[in-house]
């Protein structure tokens, strides 16, 4: 019985180890082809218009996607805590969706901030220091505060395991709830920037 547990099939181990290498090579090739295609398109009039239109779309709508994604993340997080109606497998599935929407929303937020900086609609200090923007200081300042609170909420999600292993695991719920419930007015006020 012990011999059966310790011996593993070399085919199975080799197959699993070889698969990610092929996938990562394919991804690198796809990214490289996409970069070359965008760079080549930048030299054509149609390509320049397409790139400018895509950038304008990203500049505005990634902020909207972030707003909607973070709102959905909060709602799914609240539903995932239900122990009366949902089975364990449903709660686990909702927690996975909750984490996926949170990660997507944070990526959209980072793209939104980066495009605003690249376009010149915000200065370098606007995402760091609230209420100093020359254009719409209140809205941009509330967006900066909401961004800070979302970073705190993301960090509490990442460090959740350390809270669960502590003497008082309930601290995680208090920290996550406080950091998530605070930015609601900021999200809606900053959606117009």
Outline the structure in words.
This protein has helices spanning 2-6, 10-41, 45-79, 88-119, 137-158, 160-164, 170-181, 184-190. It is globular, with a radius of gyration of 22 Å. Helix 5 packs antiparallel against helix 7 (170-181) and helix 5 packs across helix 8. The chain is mainly alpha-helical.
Give a brief description.
The protein has about 190 residues and is mainly alpha-helical. The chain contains eight helices and no strands.
Keywords:
disordered C terminus; 0% strand; mainly alpha; 8 helices; 193 residues
Large-scale geometry? globular
Q: Structural class of the helix and strand makeup? A: mainly alpha
Largest sheet composition? none
Termini gap? 66 Å
Overall number of strands: 0
Beta-strand percentage range? under 5%
Low-confidence stretches: 182-193
Mean pLDDT: 76
- Considering DSSP H and I runs of 4 or more, what fraction of the residues is helical? over 70%
Spatial extent as radius of gyration: 22 Å
Order of SSEs: HHHHHHHH
| Number of alpha- plus pi-helical segments | 8
Ordered list of secondary-structure elements with their pairings:
Layout: H1 2-6, H2 10-41, H3 45-79, H4 88-119, H5 137-158, H6 160-164, H7 170-181, H8 184-190
Helix pairs in contact: 3-4, 4-5, 5-7, 5-8
């Amino acid at each position: 019985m012990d011999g059966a547990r310790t011996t593993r099939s070399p085919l199975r181990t080799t197959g699993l180890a070889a698969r990610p290498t092929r996938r990562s090579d394919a991804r690198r090739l796809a990214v490289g082809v996409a970069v070359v295609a965008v760079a080549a398109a930048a030299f054509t009039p149609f390509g320049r218009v397409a790139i400018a239109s895509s950038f304008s779309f990203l500049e505005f709508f990634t902020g909207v996607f972030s707003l909607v994604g973070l709102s959905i993340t909060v709602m799914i997080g609240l539903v995932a805590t239900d122990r009366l109606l949902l089975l364990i497998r449903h709660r686990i599935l909702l927690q996975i969706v909750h984490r996926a929407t949170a990660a997507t929303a944070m990526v959209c937020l980072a793209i939104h901030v980066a495009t605003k900086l690249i376009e010149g609609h915000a200065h370098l200090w606007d995402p760091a220091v609230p209420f100093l923007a020359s254009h719409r200081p209140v809205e941009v300042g509330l967006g900066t505060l909401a961004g800070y609170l979302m970073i705190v909420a993301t960090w509490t999600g990442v460090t959740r395991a350390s809270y669960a292993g502590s003497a008082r695991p309930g601290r995680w719920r208090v920290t996550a709830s406080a950091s998530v419930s605070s930015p609601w007015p900021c999200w809606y006020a900053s959606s117009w920037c």
